[in-house]
Amino acid sequence: MKNQPLTKYIFQPGLVVRQLRILVSQFLVLPDRNALRNPSDNMYQPLTPSLKKENMKAFLIIIFGLISLVGNCQVPEMNDPEKFPYQVNEWFVDSINNKPINFYLNNPAIDKYSKLFYQGKFAMSDDDLTFAFLDSVLTTNQETKDFYLYVFNCVLRITDGALSEYIGQDCKAYLEKYPCDFIKLKNNKLYSDNYLKWISFAAYEYYFDDNPIEKTNQTFEIIKQNLEKKCAEQSSELENIRLKIIEHIKENE
């Protein structure tokens, strides 16, 4: 599924063209071929203001219709929320980090598929479109990172199967890149109920390393150095995370 081409799902030019022709025929009356071969003297008279207005109205209707048609073709079959209702977002908020949700939904720097997922119009899947916005949880863009974190957390709530392995990699990477932000999840009302799941998913990734306990301890020494520069007061919680991960490794050896 992961390597399937997406173009066959995304856009069907023939369908759009046929629908566009239907729209055109409903609003414009074109001269027949004989009239074009033998034009009358008044055939090319300038348009009156009323005709200009009507033509502009028809044009706008056609354009908006085309946009709508194209928009309906932009969600691949594997991400169709009607076919996969248990893989869509159900957690909606008015704001994230004191910014209204529309700030993010109207932000051009945020990709459309993460927005569609948030809105319940895109079903997560084991595919490149989903992977792309999940990876954005690691962004350095201060303006968009809160939205991507929220979307990632929503996916984490409902993930299963092959996607879980991919999400585990991002949980581990987020812990190593942003340890202070990772620990803040514990006391944030948007994420606190899912905090242990973040740790659990990261733990699976540490478990699959060679010599996992030794490698985990080495990694946490590096994380600790980074954390002490930015939020040293959280060192004890970082140690709790390390112990939970070590415990998970031992339980699965």
Termini separation comes to: 31 Å
What percentage of amino acids are in beta strands? under 5%
Question: Structural class per helix/strand content?
Answer: mainly alpha
> Order of SSEs, N→C?
HHHHEEHHHHHHHHH
Biggest sheet features: 2 strands, antiparallel
Largest sheet strand order: 1-2
DSSP strand tally: 2
What is the number of helical segments per DSSP (H or I, 4+ residues)? 13
Poorly predicted runs of 5 or more residues? 1-33, 65-73
- Average pLDDT over all residues: 82
Radius of gyration: 26 Å
Keyword list:
single chain, mainly alpha, two-stranded antiparallel sheet, disordered N terminus
Topology at a glance:
Layout: H1 7-10, H2 13-27, H3 33-37, H4 49-72, E1 95-96, E2 99-100, H5 101-105, H6 112-118, H7 128-135, H8 145-158, H9 162-177, H10 179-184, H11 195-207, H12 212-230, H13 235-252
Antiparallel strand pairs: 1-2
Helix pairs in contact: 2-4, 9-11, 11-13, 12-13
Structure description:
Strands 1-2 form a two-stranded antiparallel sheet. The chain is mainly alpha-helical and 253 residues long. It has helices at 7-10, 13-27, 33-37, 49-72, 101-105, 112-118, 128-135, 145-158, 162-177, 179-184, 195-207, 212-230, 235-252; strands at residues 95-96, 99-100. A hairpin with a 2-residue loop joins β1 (95-96) and β2 (99-100). It starts with 6 loop residues before the first helix and ends with a helix.
Short characterization:
With 253 residues, the chain is an all-alpha fold. The chain has 13 helices and two strands; from the N terminus they run ααααββααααααααα. The chain is globular.
